[in-house]
């Protein structure tokens, strides 16, 4: 069945691990991820961005995820990633999602609270859970200066007030991660002191880490080896993600590593089989590459295999 995240997060919190939330855009991506979850007996969140809905259409993505549930019997959470306004959240709540994110992080504190509360009230009336975001994910910078950190990273006191006043079910926080393949110029660093403080001030409460791909070096090397140009791509090291899961972090978002796994596989395939032109010939191995990468994440990084 399609499920929400309440039970998943409760178990993840108590077990000191995290559930992977993987962005989906087409059938091969969905199938690769789902096959990994079956193999690893792992909990699973599939998430859909506004860009994904624009690319593939809401109906195709929801039907594909429903097909995955029907085909496998796996409990899967279908989540809206980065909902920008009330309307897109309402649309997804009404359209069968079991979880939505309202991302009001670009607004001032009071406006973020007001918008989030409005989404929470609607979603909860329909039995759907809500993720919100407080703080701004860092851009590509060396070590962010202390003053800049306080301006953009999540403030622990504000986090407590935000959760109390909005009633959101989980909270995405900024501690130094960022979206995409270029997360750090210098040495990767996350603000674990801040994560620990937020965890202690919100005991039992599930936190979410966005921008948490590792930008797995072997995929970057493979892309570059077969004609790509991804210079200086760098992500969050695996040991840091494993550590984040031992704190309040219950959901870790992964999109970039899916893109890299798929692209590395396809680049290699094209170079080695220049005469092939049937999409199944290169999308098949790409799906396998996604499955292997996701299984590795579940086992070695999220620590959610068998949970
Ligand atoms: O948060 C960003 C996710 O990677 C989704 O990206 O908006 O290009 O689909 P997208
Ligand atoms: P990555 O770009 O690090 O994969 O982050 C994805 C994400 O946070 C989706 O919301
Ligand atoms: Zn994100
Ligand atoms: Na955790």
From TrEMBL:
User: Could you say which cofactors this protein requires?
Assistant: Zn(2+)
Protein residues bound to Zn(2+) 2 = 103, 133
The entry's active site is 81
Q: Name one GO biological process term.
A: glycolytic process
Q: Where exactly are the transmembrane stretches of this chain?
A: none
Sequence positions that bind Zn(2+) 1 = 82, 179, 210
What is catalyzed by this enzyme? Answer: beta-D-fructose 1,6-bisphosphate = D-glyceraldehyde 3-phosphate + dihydroxyacetone phosphate
The UniProt record lists the keyword Zinc: yes
Write down the InterPro entries for this protein, in alphabetical order.
Answer: Aldolase_TIM, Class_II_FBP_aldolase, FBA_II, Fruc_bis_ald_class-2
NCBIfam families recorded: cbbA, fruc_bis_ald
Official protein name in the record: Fructose-bisphosphate aldolase
Q: What is the source species?
A: Succiniclasticum ruminis
């Amino acid at each position: 069945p399609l499920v929400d995240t309440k039970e998943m997060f409760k178990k993840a919190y108590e077990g000191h691990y995290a559930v992977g939330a993987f962005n989906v855009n087409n059938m091969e991506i969905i199938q690769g991820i789902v096959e990994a979850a079956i193999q690893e007996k792992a909990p699973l969140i599939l998430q859909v961005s506004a860009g994904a809905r624009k690319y593939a259409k809401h109906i195709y993505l929801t039907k594909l995820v429903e097909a995955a549930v029907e085909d496998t019997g796996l409990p899967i959470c279908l989540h809206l990633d980065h909902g920008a306004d009330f309307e897109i959240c309402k649309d997804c709540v009404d359209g069968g999602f079991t979880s939505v994110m309202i991302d009001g992080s670009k607004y001032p504190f009071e406006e973020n609270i007001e918008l989030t509360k409005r989404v929470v009230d609607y979603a909860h009336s329909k039995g759907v859970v809500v993720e919100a975001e407080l703080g701004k994910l860092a851009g590509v910078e060396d070590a962010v200066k202390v003053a800049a950190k306080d301006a953009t990273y999540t403030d622990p006191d504000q986090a407590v007030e935000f959760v109390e006043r909005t009633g959101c079910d989980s909270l995405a926080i900024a501690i130094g991660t960022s979206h995409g393949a270029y997360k750090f110029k210098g040495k990767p660093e996350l603000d674990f002191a801040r994560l620990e403080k937020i965890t202690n001030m919100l005991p039992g409460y599930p936190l979410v880490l966005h921008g948490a791909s590792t930008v797995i070096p072997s995929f970057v090397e493979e892309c570059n080896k077969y004609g790509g140009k991804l210079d200086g791509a760098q992500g969050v090291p695996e040991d840091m993600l494993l550590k984040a899961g031992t704190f309040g972090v219950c959901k870790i978002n992964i999109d970039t590593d899916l893109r890299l796994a798929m692209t590395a596989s396809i680049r290699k395939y094209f170079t080695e089989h220049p005469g092939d032109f049937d999409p199944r010939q290169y999308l098949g191995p790409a799906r396998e590459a996604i499955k292997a990468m996701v299984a590795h994440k579940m086992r070695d990084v999220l620590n959610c295999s068998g949970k």
